């Protein structure tokens, strides 16, 4: 009989624990690269339909994976950054940013160089988020056991051989067990070096954007007049038509080599892996903001940016040498002479392609230079086409000024990036949009001939082409205006600051248009905050419960996360229902516990949980509380409590059906009133 009871208890225990979701399984190994260098390999197997997020996923979206290498000082150093396998890149319309995520599998690799030969193990702590219909914040500690390192062994083991040390799981933590299997170095992991389809699309996007930038540069006063002059030079100086075509072709290829070389130089200086990280660097964005403001002022006619004459004279002398080298220096002379027009466009393209990272600058310069080189080659092959070229005139200056307005608008995108990283809230969404409305509005007035700038000629009428562009810019300006009142402006997603980064995240005047409730910080109860949709919310369980006792209202316990997409969907699509919102504002006390709050707990409040995990952050505290009380670790998760903190409703998770959630909420409140 006791055996039967034990079996029943085991079955109930199994189902009782089934609610703890653990969609990611880890396996680790150590690959010995040399006597003192080891590669720590961490493989994640992810359940179907779940997504785990990259280390590089943009801010204001899902939480990135973060690695913390313990006790490095005096023991070992990291060689480069943690590499990861290819991720997918998909736009998230909830957070209005791109998500970089892994599906099914993910691999992370970090090379370390051991300096303490007595080191026996390396501990690595990882925090990560996985989402499906619910989001889970998880963490793990990996213990990599290292083989004995003898001080005299520095050169014993050749780099081509590796000791592979596989892992097993012990008590929820991953611990490596040392095995002495020596084998030749395996072929590089294809997934690590593969470029995901979305990233390839981004590179194509950079190429197309750069090609259009090159075409725009082609239509500036510095470059356009050079086309007939240069082509005529090749056709007249060459003995045969074929020679003229060949020389023009070499000239075009030289232009491409010069600009692609610039892209390669940028990539070499900053490194393929660091360009993406550099794009989020505050100083990088601030410097580019200043550069683009200077370029914009130059295009608008404040001054001209020119390189030193001595530099240009040296290049001109080399161009007189003739042959392939002479043609190459003629192309270099074009790049230098036209710098005042092409420099700002090249600078903008390099800044934007650095945000893509990898070979983005090389691809960008390939697209830009191809657009510049193409007409020189085509008109050399078909010189009769030059008769169809429009004559140089005031329209070239219009193109240059228009580029100046675009440079000015893009400058504030870089400033916005820096502001988002620093979280200074100086350039929130409304301010950013106001600046863009002013810039594009001024551009529209210029195109209509209502603004005259220094290099403009007197104008009695505007061309049909200029009128069409003016109408397009005016339409775009008008499109921006509703954004000041909370319109999503989905066309500009990724360019403007996110909706959540604004003075009024749910639109200007939103709180005054819904049912009554607290609408200002001054009217809030002690320790409360203005939550989503203007609802009064507490972010601490005990403080919220104390207030519920004071006002004798039930509690809606809301396990949520800042980076939980389905939590935002519930708030925007379900809580926004007029009847539900009225209940949340007037009939219940909302306690929202954020499981991904990365703020550190005071030292005296840090502790070791029942599962043996270190609880050092506010988010970890509420995650552990949810697991211990409800045996579940996913968000969103809702429970209705009485004023004493006892459950009076069956908990629910993600419930997108408004009527179903409304019924559940009302049932909980009616039980409280009985």
TrEMBL record:
Compartments, as annotated in UniProt: Membrane
UniProt xrefs under SUPFAM superfamilies: Thioredoxin-like (SSF52833)
Domain spans labelled Cytochrome C biogenesis protein transmembrane: 207-416
Signal peptide feature range: none
Lineage: Bacteria, Pseudomonadati, Bacteroidota, Flavobacteriia, Flavobacteriales
Keyword Phosphoprotein appears in the UniProt entry: no
Listed transmembrane segments: 203-227, 248-270, 282-303, 324-346, 358-382, 394-412, 432-453, 465-485
Topology relative to the membrane: Multi-pass membrane protein
Protein name, as recorded: Thioredoxin family protein
Source organism of the structure: Flavobacterium lacisediminis
Domain annotation Thiol:disulfide interchange protein DsbD N-terminal: ranges: 29-143
Keywords from the named record: Cytochrome c-type biogenesis, Membrane, Transmembrane, Transmembrane helix
